[in-house]
Amino acid sequence: MFRRKAFLHWYLGEGMDELEFTEAESNLIDLISEYQQYQDAEVDDYDETDEEQQQETEGQ
Fold first, then answer.
1. Is residue 29 part of a domain?
2. Looking at the UniProt record for this protein, which Gene Ontology cellular component terms does it annotate, in alphabetical order (predicted)?
3. Is 28 helix (H, G, I), strand (E, B) or coil?
4. Distance CA 6, CA 9 (A)
5. Domains: count for the chain
6. Residue 3 pLDDT class (50, 70, 90 cuts)
7. Phi then psi dihedrals of residue 6, to 5 deg
8. 10-25: per-residue pLDDT in tens?
9. Helical H runs in 1-60?
10. Taking Cα atoms as reference points, which of 17, 26, 21 lies closest to residue 2?
11. 50 or 9: which carries more pLDDT confidence?
């Protein structure tokens, strides 16, 4: 909605600046990428644990 500037006039009329929206968008993108790093790390840990359990089962 920000890219289309939909409803932006309401916020600007209340005293906000467009720069605040740009900064908030940047913060949100950073937060999403940080969470994706944690998600990728958990998937890698799960795969390693799953392989170890399969090897132990085959060895018995």
1. yes
2. microtubule
3. helix
4. 8
5. 1
6. confident
7. -75, 130
8. 999 999 999 999 999 9
9. 8-13, 18-59
10. 21
11. 9
Range of the domain at 28: 18-59
Q: Dump pLDDT digits (tens) for 35-47.
A: 999 888 877 776 6
CA distance 5 to 59: 62
5: left (phi over 0), alpha (psi -120 to 50) or beta: left
Residue with tokens 């990728």: 40
Q: Give the predicted TM-score (pTM) of the model.
A: 0.59
Tell whether 6 is covered by a domain.
Answer: no
Torsion, Cα of 36, 40, 46, 50 (10° steps): 150
**DSSP label at 60?**
-
Q: Is residue 50 part of a domain?
A: yes
60 — pLDDT class (breaks 50, 70, 90): low
Q: How many CA atoms lie within 13 A of 39 on its CB side?
A: 6
